[in-house]
Amino acid sequence: METKQIIKKMGAMALLLTLLLGLKWALPSEVQAATDEDYEYEIILEKATITKYKGKASEVIIPDTLGGKPVAEIGKGAFFQNTKLKSVIIPDSITSIGDEAFMYCFS
Questions:
Q1: Would you state the torsion angle of the CA atoms of residues 19, 20, 25, 29, taken in this order, to the nearest 10 degrees?
Q2: Is 0.85 surpassed by the pTM of this model?
Q3: Around Cβ 63, how many Cβ atoms within 10 Å?
Q4: Which of 50, 59, 43 is nearest to 79 (CA)?
Q5: What is the 3-state secondary structure (H, E, C) of the chain?
Q6: CA atoms within 13 A on the CB side of 25
Q7: How far out from the chain centre does Cα 89 lie?
Q8: What gap in Å lies between CA 73 and CA 71, rounded to an integer?
């Protein structure tokens, strides 16, 4: 293969890569990480997943919404080793509780 052909193919590949990278940045992300005073959470496909409880309450009422989206999941380890936690009220919107979400919450 001639040098000119190689350079031409490399240029075409570089252009394609540039277009693909630009497209990735232009599309909205399906997952958004967010935080509020008591929770870290992700918005995934228009539903919130609690990834970490940061609050200090011993009696927690999980909200129906976070970031304006319905809370659908309590993620893996979200309340892990929370030694102050005594009770949790879970809304009907929760459809999934991740592994070890309440592990080592002995109170």
A1: 150
A2: no
A3: 16
A4: 50
A5: CCHHHHHHHHHHHHHHHHHHHHHHHHCCCCEEEEECCCEEEEEECCEEEEEEECCCCCEEECCCEECCEEEEEECCCCCCCCCCCCEEECCCCCCEECCCCCCCCCC
A6: 5
A7: 22
A8: 6
Would you write out the chain's pLDDT as a tens digit for each of its 107 residues?
A: 676 666 666 565 655 555 555 544 444 456 677 677 899 999 999 999 999 999 999 999 999 999 999 999 999 999 999 999 999 999 999 999 999 999 999 98
**Amino acid making up residue 37:** E
